[in-house]
Write a structure and sequence with these properties.
Layout (H helix, E strand, L loop, with lengths): L4 H26 L6 H6 L8 H26 L4 H24 L6 H25 L11
Helix pairs in contact: 1-3, 1-5, 4-5
Length: 146
Amino acid sequence: MKYDKPLLAALIGAIAIIPHEAISLTAKYLGWTSMSVFEMNSKLFDQYGSWIVGVLTTLLTSAVVGFIFYEVLRIIGVDYIILKGIAASMTSWLIFEAILQMVRGTSGEPVSGHFIHAFGAAVAGLVIGYMFERFLISPVPENHPE
């Protein structure tokens, strides 16, 4: 079966953010953080943070992160891809936090919220690394000489 690997990488990136949202939404309802990752992402465009706008912006930005991660993997290799996925996801979350603080002056999150979102980004990176390994990286057959 032939498929477009960069498009699949972007789709995996968009899917991988869903566990991050589940973690941050659960933490929001428990009172550990003031907003979910979708609401935080929408604060780039809206002062108060809208969940609906956040769905669109977060899926788009995470798809871009998935595509960039795929292109970077072509350069640096696919060894330890799950650890690289975690590092890429946490780095992209950190860059987004820095951009949000530059645009809004503050992220509006308590300290516990930063830990929750960092953990959610690590889980999203774990998911993206596993899904890349499972669906994008072709295993080398045992009888194939390297």
